[in-house]
Description:
Blueprint: E1 4-8, E2 11-12, E3 15-16, H1 18-34, E4 37-44, H2 48-54, E5 60-65, H3 75-86, E6 92-96, H4 99-112, E7 116-120, E8 122-125, E9 130-136, E10 141-146, E11 152-156, E12 171-176, E13 206-210, H5 219-230, E14 233-236, H6 238-242, E15 263-267, H7 273-276, E16 284-289, E17 302-305, H8 308-322
Parallel strand pairs: 1-4, 1-6, 4-5, 5-12, 6-11, 7-11, 13-14, 13-15, 15-16, 16-17
Antiparallel strand pairs: 2-3, 8-9, 9-10
Amino acid sequence: MQPVILAVAEIADGSLTRVSGEIATLARTLASEARGTALGLVVDPAPDAAAAELAAYLPRVVAVTSPASGAGTWAPHAAAEVLRLVGEGVTHVLLPATTDGRDTGGILVGLLGWGLLANADGVTWDGAGPIVEASVLGGMAITCSALSDAVGIVTVHAGAVTAVETDAPGSVESRASEDQPAIPAVAILERVAEAGAAVSLEDARIVVVGGRGIGGPEGFELAEELADLLGGVVGATRASVDAGWISYARQIGQTGKSVKPALYLGLGVSGAMQHRVGMQASGVIVAINKDADAPIAEIADLLVVGDLFEVGPALSAELRARRGG
């Protein structure tokens, strides 16, 4: 059976998320290694713009107009469209390792009985199927896992691959959804927009992260200021989240989100392994810490040894000066 690999995309504010471009690239790469085919799926009340973006990475994209997916939880509607494509020959499904991606994967496992390999940091094709590498035990070990069948599902961490567009955009096939979710969709009664979350952590090119050394909620005011000046997004370690200084949505690490920004700026971040798992693929890592021997020094491109409440404001003043005030 020729493998048919499906990349399921996600949309934020009408545009394709960065991780969606990454898994589309991965689907195309795996299809080439497996001598199979790759395609993408966009499910949204208004999918056309995001589908056109996804077509830059794949030879074929299915754009499903699903009004109901915007009114309730998205995963049951996405799963229903994946099931339609499985009926048309899809053998493997790639999903982002996000809340919606994991929910969709769980629904598909229950309805299809397929195996699922979760939280991939790397995926290759060995001739029989995908081989998934994943960090475990706080990044102290790497596992390699394979599916026991010729079909299956993989959830992929953001930053696991680099998104690369094709030489020529693929085709977009528009479809109307039957709006019959794979399982009953939970109605959304209220949406609350988190301050400072205009750009998701996973998509941000610059991330300013507060650790235990930031001292408290007031310390994140400095992080917010620097993020604003740099055009970035604020993140946090598990310690600062557990202390109640910032919401869990900002947590980076093994039990939070994985990021791959061009610039990571850590304020009082010790660099525990649990946190490093979620950020060590960053392009440039800059850390401000009083402890020259903090674990973050092992991976930092630049370590500034000093009090972050002295260094941070000085950095802020310099950035303001360069912006002309």
